[in-house]
Specification:
homodimer, 305 residues, alpha/beta, two-stranded antiparallel sheet, 46% helix, 17% strand, globular
Chain lengths: 305, 305
């Protein structure tokens, strides 16, 4: 799956991923009205609204982008019904040949991490049947519990030829509280990065590993160091756009082959129609605004790296 | 909800929680057969089997215990159907007046952490309706992303009078890989513990905070230090029993008032009938074996702390 991701990025010349993180207040009124008319102001109604919203964006952008990254929290907030919309979104994106990165930030130990792994990027055995629950291509994983938490994901991914992105340095302002603390005069995120490179050797693709890393666009100097520590690691870069990361800061996340990083934008794409720059599209054409924002983002990034 | 938890622990003299982490191979054959006969060897069949298994254990133990801790990964591995069984388990345990700790180990940033929080321990607004998706009383939270990841949970919990347990020092063998690394000559978990104590001040109950901590039973010396760093923090202690933690090692996790810690056992209780000690109950009476294991655990812990 890492080979497919790399090949799609090359073919489209688009090292980007669209974050499908639908807040209900991003969803145009006409979509909400229709969903609430059909299902009421219920969890089911909310789930229908975000699913229809996502579908519009996927339809308007799938030919330009290699991947989408649905953030499961935005679905889980609506309970079971929300998670059904997550599953529908994953399946629909895959039907459009998009690579799906489930932003689930799970992490536990041993058989518990394995349970998350089979649920999201593997198969589960029930009696004599082998079943596929959520079926993303990649998921994000939290490393705080150490190798016991991460290697069960890798074991499952080796079977399924899928992959993970491990949180190394996150894009948020307080990420330094623990991640930047100095251990033997080096920040913790560097040690995590080294461990990611080691984990990566357990499951290599052609040029890059199936074990990627998350490094926020908001910390480009750290990105430069982590790029060197993890040469074979694909870096998923959140924080571009709405969170303040600029295209000119993204060069250090890429290798000399022009590969090695995939930049995420969520709000900047999916709620583009709310920005002044794309206001002319109007609510009805929110998905066209998203397409225009994708085109701008691809240009912005490929011209600057 | 922390006050309710403390008062139930006192009343029952039982500082324990039963981990509802149902692996399909813990479930007696007759329950699986009935579930698969009704729903096939499907995700729905698996979900039905673990739900019926849980219900039996809750019915057999609810009068002895203050709380249960369903581990969501064990449900999520069966996709949407599994998560429905999680929700049924939460609701059923609450109908028996048990405090429910959702072991979800979530953690993200800002509005994303808030989305997890409203989904699990808060309410979500859809149009003019205020809805309650999963409705646990407490959830576990991963601190790797810093305050941006944790305080949104606290904000939601202040509204709902619910709480969280933050991972500080986990029970697994490799937990030291990052958690034990020395920062200014002190292990990282101590810094996380100090931060938990600070976060705890944001949402205090009568004697203890709504912000608890997870500290594994397998590291009693670290437990002793963390107890002192976080005097008002309830400590959720996994790792007793099957993972190797002994009752005699648990005293340091408690305060002098005999409170301040709640010890979890999962496999040791729910799969008790598979142990030699309880084999006489047989598969049919697995829930009675769980009750006997709960009685033993309560005695073992209260005599040793």
């Amino acid at each position: 799956m890492i080979n497919k991701l790399v090949s799609k990025i090359k073919k489209l010349n688009a090292p980007i991923v669209v974050g499908l993180d639908p807040m209900l207040n991003y969803v145009p009124e006409y979509i909400k009205k229709k969903a609430f008319d059909g299902y009421g102001e219920t969890l089911e109604g909310a789930a229908e609204a975000i699913w229809q919203f996502n579908k519009g964006i996927i339809d308007a952008t799938y030919d330009l982008i290699p991947a989408v990254k649905p953030q499961i929290a935005m679905y889980e907030q609506f309970g079971i019904e929300g998670l059904k919309a997550f599953k529908k979104t994953v399946d629909y994106a895959k039907s459009k040949d998009l690579v799906v990165i489930g932003d689930i930030k799970r992490g536990d130990i041993g058989s518990t991490s394995a349970a998350y792994a089979v649920g999201h990027v593997g198969t589960v055995k029930v009696g004599n049947q082998v079943l596929t629950p959520f079926d993303e291509d990649f998921v994000t994983v939290n490393p705080y519990l150490g190798s016991d938490g991460v290697t069960p994901f890798i074991d499952v991914c080796k079977e399924s030829k899928k992959g993970i992105f491990v949180l190394v340095k996150t894009s948020n302002p307080s990420s330094g509280e623990f991640q930047d603390r100095l251990v033997d005069e080096r920040p913790l995120y560097e040690l995590v990065g080294e461990q990611v490179a080691k984990w990566g050797e357990l499951h290599m693709g052609e040029d890059y590993s199936y074990v990627g890393a998350v490094v926020g666009a908001t910390y480009p100097k750290m990105g430069e160091i982590l790029r060197k520590i993890m040469p074979k690691t694909y870096i998923l870069v959140p924080g571009y756009g709405a969170q303040g990361g600029k295209a000119k800061d993204l060069a250090p996340y890429f290798n000399e082959d022009g590969l090695g990083a995939i930049v995420n934008s969520s709000r900047g794409i999916i709620a583009a129609y709310k920005q002044e720059q794309y206001a002319q599209y109007g609510e009805q054409n929110y998905a066209d605004a998203s397409r225009a924002a994708v085109e701008f983002m691809i240009k912005d990034i490929t011209e600057n790296i």
